[in-house]
Every structure is written in structure tokens, then in C-alpha cells.
Amino acid sequence: MKILVTGSAGFIGYHLTKRLLERGDEVVGVDNINDYYDVALKYGRLKELGISEDAQEWGRRVDSLLYKRHSFYRVDLADKEAIEEIFKAESFDAVVNLAAQAGVRYSIENPDIYVQSNVVGFLNILEGCRHFGVKNLCFASSSSVYGLNGSQPFKTSDKTEHPISLYAATKKSNELMAHTYAHLYGICATGLRFFTVYGPWGRPDMAPMLFADAILNDRAIKVFNHGNMSRDFTYIDDIVEGIVKVIDKPAKPNESWSALDPDIASSSAPYRLYNIGNNAPVALMDFIRELEKALGKEAKKSYLPLQDGDVVATYADVSDLIDKFGYKPQTPLNKGIAEFVKWYREFYRK
Predict the structure, then answer these.
(1) Secondary structure (DSSP) of 138-195
(2) Which pLDDT tens digit goes with each residue over 303-321?
(3) Which of 54, 78, 274, 279 has its CA 20 to 30 A from that of 143?
(4) Catalytically annotated residue among 36, 73, 106, 167
């Protein structure tokens, strides 16, 4: 297939692009390479995909030096004309929308960029699919949409009407927008709610990178809610495997769906929602101990209250994923952390 991957200079986008190329797909990547975090890391990912520094120029198609079936555009999803031109020029079989302004805490102080990137940008992707005949769409949602929902584990059938960050609200809006386009235009749309993704080439604003940097540089790590938190940490390879399965098996209408008793995660339209998580939440303090073990150094700790926008625990019910695809993430934390630390030492030594 010829696949558009948005956010291809990002953490998940980079890994997905590499996986698709290695199995023989043609991939066009787009990313605005913003400075939310160190752009050197983003360009480092692109370099691994054979994309040269020519990618700094806006709107220019750059062909990979390593993969014959890969090219890249630096564009912003909110730029409607630029996105439309790419759809027109490239003719895609499928789209995977991973581009978004990430970060729960950052959204509290910088709301505008979330609406532009996550809402306006996603609308432009939906319009591109609509007008250029792309019927296979996979898009990133987030475990953050569960918000104040206290039931554990989180099920896709649970209500998600009480987000506690604008980031979560924009992800919830993506799910609603995608369903509308599935209903009106027959776009096969699948939303994936990711649970705390970690691994090599990860984001510097997330716990593994923040903690590793602080520990190795003798700074105290910030332990929120005094350590009384847990997360369903999910290794990057498991996330990518789930995305690939969704690309290969687009959403179909649920023939048993009832308007009198509507299933939130499916529809009479070709629309589905799935959780992708390890289905095994880890206490924050246990995660820290595993990271200390891999780094060979104990962390200094600063215990702080719960941050605005944060939830105390996440725990994914992945029964729908198992039923539909026969798949469940299963990389154990110790293996995933070891791979992350190995990459971290190599990349930052260079």
C-alpha cells in the first residue's frame, strides 16, 4: 500500500514508518518539526529513515536516501492548502494520523496550539480522505480521554464525557469527528487509544527520558502524587504492531449495532475504537526502581502533589483488540526499559 503517516518525525510515527518500509509499503511522511521538544531528536529520527537536512524546507518533497519507497514533507496539518496538495499529488491507499500537539500539562498553559494541531489539523486530514477517495484511516487517540472515569480497567465501552485536560478533550473530539466522516462518507475510521508509550527514540517530556536524564546528571526526579500513581506502560513495538494490524484490517460497520442501545466503540458506520495498552499497570515507584536498576544508579527524589490534568491510574482493557485481531501487547517492563536505556546511552553519548 501507499500510506500517509502524519507525525513521522515523532516517536510513534518514526517507528511505524520504519516498520512499514521494511515490510515493503510505500510511505509518505509529514511533520511540522515544531520545537515543543528538542528538534535534534526529531531530525535524528528522520536521518534514520534516510531523510536529509533538506527536510527543514517547508513544503518540499524530500526523498529518502535509504528507502526507495519513502519521502517526506515538512508541513503543518493546520495548513489546509498544503495538506490538500499532498493528497492530490500522492494518491494514498491509507492514512495513519499520528501528528498532534502532545502533552497533558502543556495544554493547560498553551491551549491554542492544541486546537490548531489536533482539531483543525485533523479536520484537514479527514477532508483529504473525503475528497481524494481514501477509505482506510487509522488515527491516534489517547487513554487521557477516560478523564474522571474511575472504573478500572478502562473499557472502550466506558463513558468519556469528563476529560480533565484540553489535550484529552481534543482527542475525544477526534473520535467524534472521525465517526461523523465514517457515517457521512463511508471512510473506514479506526481510533486507537494509546496507553503510556515508551521505548527507544521516545519523547523527552515523558517520564523515562525525564527520569533518565535527571538520574544520570544527579538531579532529583519529580515524583508526582507522592508516588501514588500507576500507568499501563506500553512498549513501542507493541503499539506499532497494533497499528499495522488495524491498517491491514480496516473498520467495518457493526451489523449488530443498535441505535436504541448504542455501543460507543463501534457503529452502523465503518468505525471502531480500541485500547492499546499492556493490560498490566505498573506502580510509579516500581517503574522508577526498574529504571534505576537498568541505569545502575539510584535516583534522588522530590515528592510533589498530583499535577492538574493528571490521572492517578491508567489500566487498559484490551479484550476488543484480542477478539478482533487476536493480538495483545505483552513486552515486559524490564525488557522494554533495558532496550530504552541501551538506546538512550548510545544516542546521547553521540
Answers:
(1) EEEEEGGGGTT---SSB-TTS-----SSHHHHHHHHHHHHHHHHHHHH--EEEEEEE-
(2) 999 888 788 889 999 999 9
(3) 78
(4) 167
